[in-house]
Design a protein that fits this description.
Keywords: Carbohydrate metabolism, Hydrolase. By secondary structure, the protein is α/β, with parallel strands linked by helices. It is built from seven helices and ten strands.
Length: 242
């Protein structure tokens, strides 16, 4: 694991932007894997800025998001499609047809998972995957004990994840109970991975991810086995890593 320690959240976003910009400049037709949540918001703001300045273009870029809630449509402000549109897509020059998220409203959910996996394969797999880290060690919505060999699938959300995400909803009861997520095997198939982690709250989990045992109890620990993984974490997040 290549670990880059930065001072704080803005520095983490800046470093991530630098890496992605460099990657995009040398890979015109790049396939990016994207995450939602609070962690990449600063990164997306910076990428939007670079796009507006003309330093990078998304015209030939394809994107695949990690996950989407089941039961929320694109226009629901809590859907991940809506989040991505607000924070990135509507501000950049990416053609709509090159944007991919699992469809949480699909009638046949299993078919949707298989199609998503197929689309990623057809695109030649993800070139660079951006990840955030869940408090319980999840990546995407792969909760503890998800088998490492799973590809895109339907998952029941952990109570702790629903509580962590309840801040975006009116009440915990409104947080969906299921999602579609890329599996660990899908994520590990990415050529390059960048894991972003900020804040003291994640310090204990990050220490397990970096120096603990590789175990399905801590899904992100599998990243130790990836050939090209960069962790960009701030001082607070690394405060419990030796
Ligand atoms: C989001 C995702 C999740 C988040 C994780 C951290 O698409 O896949 O794994 O990255 O829950 O969320 P934040 O960044 O809000 O702490």
């Amino acid at each position: 694991m290549n670990i880059i320690k930065v001072k704080d959240y803005p520095a983490m976003s800046e470093k991530a932007c630098e890496i992605i910009t460099k990657h995009m400049k040398s890979n015109k037709r790049s396939v990016l894997g994207l995450a939602t949540g609070s962690t990449p918001e600063g990164l997306y703001e910076k990428l939007v800025h670079k796009n507006k300045q003309g330093e990078i273009t998304f015209q030939y870029t394809s994107t695949f998001n990690l996950d989407e809630y089941i039961g929320l449509d694109k226009n629901n402000p809590n859907s991940y499609y809506y989040f991505m549109n607000e924070h990135l897509f509507k501000h950049i020059d990416i053609p709509e047809k090159q944007i991919h998220l699992p469809n949480g409203m699909a009638k046949n959910k299993q078919q949707e998972c298989d199609n998503y996996e197929q689309l990623i394969k057809q695109a030649g797999n993800i070139d660079l995957q951006i990840l955030g880290l869940g408090l319980n060690g999840h990546i995407g919505f792969n909760e503890p004990k998800t088998p490492f060999d799973q590809r895109t699938h339907i998952i029941e959300l952990d109570e702790s994840t629903r509580q962590a995400n309840a801040r975006f909803f009116n009440s915990i009861d409104d947080v969906p109970t299921e999602a579609i997520t890329m599996g660990i095997a899908t994520i590990m198939g990415s050529k390059k991975i960048v894991l972003l982690v900020s804040g003291e709250k994640k310090a204990e989990t990050l220490a397990k991810v970096i120096q603990g045992e590789v175990t399905e109890d801590v899904p992100a620990s599998i990243l130790q086995k990836h050939a090209d993984i960069t962790v960009i974490a701030d001082e607070a997040a690394l405060s419990k890593t030796k």
